[in-house]
Design goal:
It is a single-pass type I membrane protein. Residues 92-177, 1204-1223 are annotated as: Disordered. Belongs to the VPS10-related sortilin family. SORCS subfamily. Helices cover 8% and strands 38% of the residues. With 1223 residues, the chain is mainly beta.
């Protein structure tokens, strides 16, 4: 029977059922991936990610319209009209000298979203690993574990995006490469909300770790309008972050906290600092924050520095630049020093632990200079302080790092750098002769060697890397033109990264022909090479990239913030693994950034993501955790158990979370991670504790590991040793626990590759180290003496910390040779502070330097130029300097002669010895006649101050007269009131005095005397004389109605005054200039004075009478024969004056005498009468003292620094006639 196909409803129904089930299952499995950015009823309104960094700022309330991908491919969905915070991160590390227990975080506004292909500014480059205080603009909108960089690409049409999955908005591995597992796994996690802190925009977190389950979180509300903290909350967890307890009631409900500190050597000791706007107090806990004791402070703390070993020793820097110390963990404080430079104070860090209580600091002197000072933390008096560096240093230049101390001193417009190794005397750091540095940064002092970045005279955005010998004195070039960038705080960041776990291994970005390329070294800068790019991309497609035209380039920005991983990361416990973001091509770029990993210490690299991710190390590098940089909420992360070869997707929360940051548990066995974030803009802080222990079913055993040998492109000898490490086998999924380090380390035989060029030598194309053109290899050490030996360089020196043995070591090592006798050459004498000036009566330290010669057998003779000379048997006895005190001022010729049996050499220095100029007084008459020469003299105190320059200003002249003499003659051709100013320059001090002089064709003057009882109330100061002058003039005007007079009370006792009768205008406006007019007025005034009508009341019951003494007409030089009567009168006046002098001499009394200003103005020095603006503490010079220029006022002047030069500039505008103001 023939069978035909027919209709079988049961079979068809079954087929349709299974087809529908198949489509339903696979379709819904991929729905979450394809609709990763779709809206969901259970998902909160999407808003931009909030960044969590060390110092992040937020301005909530800034409205921003934002659109998201809709359900259909790339179509735009509805706009988010929420009042959300955008992301614009600002990284500002803690200042040097401050040690945080945790890290401050702030939510910030995000900048507008950028479209794919838009070029972003490059994030700031990384400073070296040792300089952990890195700064720079972090990634706008990146998640907490990220750095300052973010890829903003988004496909506007829903096409394949840059991620591994290809679709915009997908998480890594959402389709595409097989190395990403599609199965979603779940991590054990718990979520806790900090209820009531939704408005707080700053947070500081401390996680004790090291077998402690305590976590402390300080949240704050910082009001940017007020510039202060208005609210704070303190939270504490004792179960690794599963739950938190609010401790506001334990620290005080009204207490506002500003900072959280933890002792680095005892994590149980916690210190909280209150907001200084409210109160200045410390809250101290010794039980990991469970209980607190409050202590009041009498100063405001700016920063703290804990001792590296003593848990109770702390240095506190106040806001008024004072340094305090405490040996009781802040319970009591002692003032150490005032005027300390910010961030320039250090604990003693010597390797031998000697003097642990020694404090190093940079402080300002009273005259504005900077000095390096050391003292004990409990006794920093003037008697116990030490000044290791002779003389002053540049401001903000002291660095104490390990066994090294660095200072800078600028002279002649060039900076000079000095170093002290293990507190030995300072030596000048020797760079190649013509490097001419204009900036230097100490990168590292590890392994008894200094790694420094130097910007030379012809560089702007690059630095050269130099490496030193053990003492840090002689430097050789390691790499040229390393890229640098400037952070937000103005700090310089060098694109150099030291790989953790492998000594001598560095990565650097070098600028070559305006292209930045990444180089790697395994021997501390001796050799550098480009990075070999991966052979295949993420999808397995071949990459055609041939060295040297194409290579892998990495961004080297690291992060001190534990919430951020930086652009590159490595760990001591995982020495072969480096994860970094970068690109493949001819140069480093900010576009097309991908993530790369190496598991063989940089020899080969693999691409792991096509978008930037934050990668964290767990379980000693046995587990890598990756979290995508995105502004969208996420609930997944990626784990790799085989050093980044394959990745599995895990969910860590049930609801998508805007991730602010991630913090891993401190300690060796890091398996707990806390994710900080929020579900929505208005929600509280969400703390998600993720426990990775559940993904392991056992601990690793010995058979789970394999050996791995460190190498550089097949070369096993790295830094003179073969090192073999123990690695977990990639197929084993077990928990490692504690890190065991290298299994074995075997020294290698020395080769030429283990030696670098010595100082003064340069490596040529043939690999040989030959002397530079400026270096003389035959120059001997200064310490070499006849009969001794010295090390004669071969041009090579072994790389510091290189462990090779035998081989060519003997050939390349410096050889000891006998010191030949040599005549002195290159002799120099200079002062310790580099200045050519010194103060009278102060110690001057001279340094004698000799480039060549037998120092131990040379006689030294020093002539100080003041009649004193000394001799020394050898130069070693002058290492601390030759001290001398000059008792007189002047210019001294200092000569030094060094001679031995083979020859001699001499040097000369001209030293200007001065004493501080304290006061200048301009002496000139009150009134003078027109077109008549007068003398102006600048009288100084003290009279001998050294070389001076005088600058004279007359009236409104714009050009001064400059002289070296303190006295000049001049004439005035215009009547009226004229000013004269003299400025006296003495070294860095400039003082000035201003006087006003009246100029007329004719005038008369009269000496006035007073009742003897006035002398009892005369304090002989300018202010008193000025007030009495005003009172006397008022009394004269009241009785005579004559207003055109000037009165000046003269200094000294008995009290007297000078009355000047000046030309005037009558009621018709006619000027009265004739002698008759003036004589008529004089007779009127004399009559009133003789009748005792001129008087005033000094105080109740004390009446003072004013009398006339003598009258003089001026000018007298214009007399004609018709004025013979006047001439006879003048002759009689002269005779009368002679008689008066005789009587004074005979009876030892002072009687006011005739004063003729037109001709005898130089016979009397006038006092200085200050105006209202003059300093009140300037004493006045009595007339009897001003008769001699050597007898002057003793006055202290205030020093005001101008720029970097301390310049004393005081204006003494002294108008001698106080009635000028009231005339």
């Amino acid at each position: 029977m023939e069978k035909v196909a027919g209709w079988y409803p049961a079979w068809h129904v079954a087929l349709l059922y299974w087809t529908w089930l198949f489509l339903f299952t696979y379709g819904f499995t991929g729905a979450e991936i394809t609709c990763r950015s779709c809206r969901s009823q259970v998902q909160p309104q999407q808003q931009p990610q909030q960044g969590l960094l060390m110092h992040l700022r937020t301005d909530r309330g800034e409205k921003e319209q934002r659109s998201f991908l809709g359900e259909k491919g790339g179509e735009r969905g509805q706009e988010a009209g929420t009042e959300d915070a955008g992301l614009q991160a600002t990284l500002a590390p803690a200042p040097a000298g401050m040690q945080f227990s945790g890290w401050e975080t702030r939510r910030v506004p995000r900048e507008p979203e950028k479209v794919a292909g838009e070029r972003r500014p490059r994030a700031a480059a990384a400073a070296p690993a040792e300089d952990r205080a890195l700064q720079g603009p972090p990634r706008p909108g990146g998640p907490g574990p990220g750095t300052g960089r973010r890829r903003w690409g988004r496909s506007p049409r829903g096409s394949a995006g840059p991620g591994p999955g290809g679709a915009a908005g997908r998480e890594p591995g959402d389709g595409g490469a097989a190395r990403f597992g599609l199965e979603e796994l779940r991590l054990a996690s718990t979520t806790f909300a900090l209820a009531g802190d939704s408005a707080h925009n700053q947070a500081m977190v401390h996680w004790s770790g090291h077998n402690s389950s305590v976590i402390l979180i300080l949240t704050k509300l910082y009001d940017y309008n007020l510039g202060s903290i208005t609210e704070s909350s303190l939270w504490r967890s004792t179960d690794y972050g599963t739950t938190y307890e609010k401790l506001n009631d334990k620290v005080g409900l009204k207490t506002i906290l500003s900072y959280l500190y933890v002792c680095p050597t005892n994590k149980r000791k916690i210190m909280l600092l209150t907001d200084p706007e409210v109160e200045s107090s410390l809250l101290i806990s010794s039980d990991e924050g469970a209980t607190y004791q409050k202590y009041r402070l009498n100063f405001y703390i700016h920063s703290l520095l804990f001792h590296p070993k003593q848990e109770d020793w702390i240095l506190a820097y106040s806001q008024d630049q004072k340094l305090f110390s405490s040996v009781e963990f802040g319970r009591r404080w002692l003032l150490l020093h005032e005027g300390v430079t910010p961030n320039r104070f250090y604990w003693s860090m010597m390797g031998n632990g000697r003097e642990p209580d020694l404090v190093h600091l940079e402080a300002r002197t009273v005259d504005g200079y900077a000095q390096y000072i050391t003292c004990k933390m409990q006794n920093c008096s003037e008697a116990t302080r030490s000044k290791p560096f002779p003389g002053y240093i540049d401001h903000n230049s002291l660095i104490v790092q390990g066994d090294y101390v660095f200072v800078q001193l600028t002279s002649g417009g060039r900076p000079h750098y000095y170093v002290s190794y293990r507190r030995s005397p300072f030596a000048q750091m020797k760079l190649p002769k013509y490097s001419l540095p204009k900036d230097m940064h100490v990168i590292s002092t590890d392994e008894n060697q200094v790694f420094a970045a130097v910007q030379e005279w012809n560089q702007n955005d690059t630095y050269n890397l130099y490496i030193s010998d053990t003492r840090g004195v002689y430097f050789t070039l390691a790499l040229e033109n390393v890229k640098s960038s400037q952070g937000l705080e103005g700090n310089v960041m060098i694109d150099l990264y030291e790989v953790a776990g492998i000594k001598g291994m560095f990565l650097a970005n070098k600028k070559i022909d305006n292209q930045v390329k990444t180089f790697i070294t395994y021997n501390k800068g001796r050799d550098w090479s480009l990075l070999q790019a991966p052979h295949t991309d993420l999808r397995g497609n071949p990459i055609h990239c041939l060295l040297p035209y194409c290579s892998l380039h990495l961004h080297l920005k690291v992060s001190d913030n534990p919430y951020t991983s930086g652009n590159i990361a490595s760990r001591d416990t995982a020495p072969s693994i480096i994860v970094a973001s970068g690109n493949i091509g001819t140069e480093l770029s900010d576009n097309d950034i991908s993530m790369f990993v190496t598991s063989d210490a940089g020899n080969t690299w693999r691409q792991i993501f096509e978008e930037e991710h934050s990668v964290l190390y767990l379980d000693q590098g046995g587990v890598l955790v990756a979290m995508k940089h995105t502004s969208l909420p996420i609930r997944h992360l990626w784990l790799s158990f085989d050093e980044g070869r394959s990745w599995s997707k895990y969910s860590f929360t049930s609801l998508p979370l805007f991730v602010d940051g991630v913090l891993g548990e401190p300690g060796e066995e890091t398996l707990i991670m806390t994710v900080f974030g929020h579900f929505s803009h208005r929600s509280e802080w969400q703390l998600v504790k993720v426990d990775y222990k559940s993904i392991f079913d056992r601990r690793c055993e010995e058979e789970d590991y394999r050996p791995w040998q460190l190498h550089s492109q097949g070369e096993a000898c790295i830094m003179g040793a073969k090192r073999i490490y123990r690695k977990r086998k990639s197929e084993k999924k077990c928990m490692q626990g504690k890190y065991a380090g290298a299994m074995t380390s075997e020294p290698c035989v020395c080769t030429e590759a283990d030696f670098d060029c010595d100082y003064g030598y340069e490596r040529h194309s043939n690999g040989q180290c030959l002397p530079a053109f400026w270096y003389n290899p035959s120059s001997l050490s200064k310490d070499c003496s006849l009969g001794q030996s010295y090390l004669n360089s071969t041009g090579y020196r072994k790389v510091v910390s290189n462990n090779c043995t035998d081989g060519v070591r003997e050939r390349y090592t410096a050889k000891p040779q006998q010191c030949p006798g040599k005549p002195p050459q290159g002799l120099r004498i200079l002062t310790a502070d580099g200045r050519l000036t010194a103060q009278q009566g102060h110690n001057v330290t001279f340094l004698v330097q000799l480039e060549e010669g037998d120092l131990q057998r040379s006689l030294i003779q020093v002539d100080f130029g003041d009649g004193i000379a000394v001799s020394y048997a050898n130069l070693s006895s002058t290492e601390d300097g030759i001290k001398h005190i000059y008792q007189n001022v002047g210019i001294f010729r200092v000569t030094v002669l060094v001679e031995n049996s083979l020859g001699s050499d001499s040097a000369v220095l001209y030293l200007h010895v001065t004493c501080p100029l304290e006061h200048v007084h301009l002496s000139l008459p009150f009134v003078t006649t027109k077109n008549k020469e007068i003398n102006a003299t600048a009288v100084l105190w003290p009279s001998q101050v050294g070389t001076l320059t005088y600058v004279w200003w007359f009236g409104n002249n714009t050009e001064p007269l400059i002289t070296l003499e303190g006295s000049i003659t001049f004439t005035f051709s215009v009547e009226g009131m004229n000013t004269i100013t003299v400025q006296v320059s003495a070294g860095n001090t400039i003082l000035q005095d201003t006087k006003t002089i009246a100029v007329y064709e004719k005038f008369q003057s009269m000496r006035l005397s007073f009742s003897p009882n006035l002398d009892d109330y005369n304090p002989d100061i300018p202010e008193w004389r000025r007030d009495i002058s005003r009172v006397v003039k008022r009394a004269l005007v009241e009785v005579s109605s004559v207003k055109h007079v000037l009165v000046a009370v003269l200094p000294g006792l008995p009290t007297s005054a000078e009355l000047f009768i000046l030309p005037y205008q009558d009621a018709t406006g006619e000027k009265k200039r004739t002698a008759a007019n003036l004589e008529q007025i004089s007779e009127t005034l004399i009559q009133k004075l003789n009748q005792n009508l001129v008087h005033f009341e000094l105080k109740p019951g004390v009446r003072i009478l004013v009398h006339a003494a003598h009258l003089t007409a001026a000018p007298l030089v214009d007399l004609t024969p018709s004025h013979s009567g006047s001439a006879m009168l003048m002759l009689l006046s002269v005779v009368f004056v002679g008689l008066a002098v005789f009587i004074i001499y005979k009876f030892k009394r002072k009687i006011p005498g005739l004063n003729i200003y037109a001709q005898m103005q130089n016979e009397k020095d006038q006092e200085m009468v200050s105006p209202v603006s003059q300093r009140e503490n300037i004493p006045n010079v009595p007339q009897r003292e001003l008769m001699s220029p050597e007898q002057l006022v003793d006055e202290k002047l205030e020093v005001h620094p101008i720029g970097s030069i301390s310049t004393t500039a005081e204006s003494q505008s002294t108008k001698e006639i106080p009635t000028y103001v009231n005339g």
